[in-house]
Amino acid sequence: MFSEKLKKYDWDDISRRIESKTSRDVERALSSVHPTLDDFMALVSRAAEPYIENMAVLSRNITRQRFGRVMSMYIPMYITNSCTNSCVYCGFNRHNKMPRVVLTAEQIEDECKAIRQLGPFENLLLVTGENPAVAGTDYIEAALKVCRPYFNNLSIEVMPLSQEDYHRLTHAGLNGVVCFQETYNRSKYKDYHPAGMKSKFEWRVNGFDRMGAAGVHKIGMGVLIGLEDWRTDVTMMAAHLQYLRKNYWRTRYSVNFPRMRPSEGHFQPNVIMSDRELAQLTFAFRIFDNDVDISYSTRERPYFRNNMATLGCTSMSAGSKTEPGGYHTYPQALEQFEVSDDRTPAEVERDLKARGIEVVWKDWDKIFD
């Protein structure tokens, strides 16, 4: 399990190594045919800041080679905000006074129909809070079966499950799983997740092993930018990705690094990442892992997303509602976080096409199941 491998990476030592990187280290990383984790540290370091244009060119060329001039589109559907966790930064925190919603099968189908009216989406991400009593594996399985006739590709972002449950869901139409570790800083993890199942660091970080062992087709990883030093956190995630690729090589992978946005909990980020730094991180991941899908959600602003679409990002959400039932059933419910890109899917497609990007709504077919 990765939690054991992670013990050999000391947080403070990784931070010091990143801080010690020089221009020579960056130049070596940029010329490396097979970049190492040490090269990745150089690319996310402050020493790499003067090289960001070089990184952008290399990232753009790799992206065109591996993915072409395309952007895969997806849309999230929040089906419940009921949660037993106390994450200090999240709008779904169980202590927040807000109406809790668990959509019925009929309401989920209404949401599917409403999304189909927004655009030709085929990639749907089902999102829940973490409350196994009301939205456990049975509920998730039932939701997948409701959505399957409407969408070719189904992913979930839910509580970490057992290997057996992941395997079971792959027979109910599941193609992918997205899970955010939030932070790899084990000593600080409990500060942000004081109660609930999410407070169990090992159970969460080892969930990716369980997904891989269950044969999940695609695994999405992420850290939340704003909790801890982002350079160290993403280096830990890069090490995790490297480990997963070696052990579960049949699986596809994606990474996401959302910057913290306002939520009901009014948590103020400890770390602020600039657009330039997020661009640097995106280029570093593309250079480090040529084939990883790099995803941007509607947390990011339109102008930034448009520009990064040509330089490294390969999948985007559009038209997102981050409240359960937000497309049809409860359009005024409380969001998990505020979106920064409120363009319609058609507007996103128009802007991407203006930059020479072909929008792909479908990259999976039911026949592959």
Can you offer a commentary on this structure?
The protein has 369 residues and is α/β, with parallel strands linked by helices. The chain has 16 helices and 9 strands. It has helices spanning 2-6, 11-19, 23-31, 37-44, 52-67, 105-118, 132-135, 137-147, 163-170, 186-192, 201-205, 207-213, 230-247, 275-288, 302-308, 345-353; strands spanning 70-80, 123-128, 153-157, 176-182, 218-223, 252-256, 293-296, 315-317, 358-360. The protein has an 8-stranded parallel barrel, surrounded by 5 helices. Helix 3 (23-31) packs across helix 4. It is globular, with a radius of gyration of 19 Å.
Task: Give a quick summary of the entry.
By secondary structure, this protein is an alpha/beta fold.
Low-confidence stretches: none
Residues in helix, % = 40-55%
Taking the sheet with the most strands, its summary is: 8 strands, parallel, barrel
Strand-residue proportion: 5-15%
Order of helices and strands: HHHHHEHEHHEHEHHHEHEHEHEHE
Question: Given the helix and strand composition, which structural class is it?
Answer: alpha/beta
Apparent shape: globular
Q: Count of DSSP E strands?
A: 9
Mean pLDDT across the residues is 94
- Our Rg estimate from Cα atoms comes to 19 Å
Oligomer: single chain
Number of DSSP helical runs: 16
Distance between the termini: 28 Å
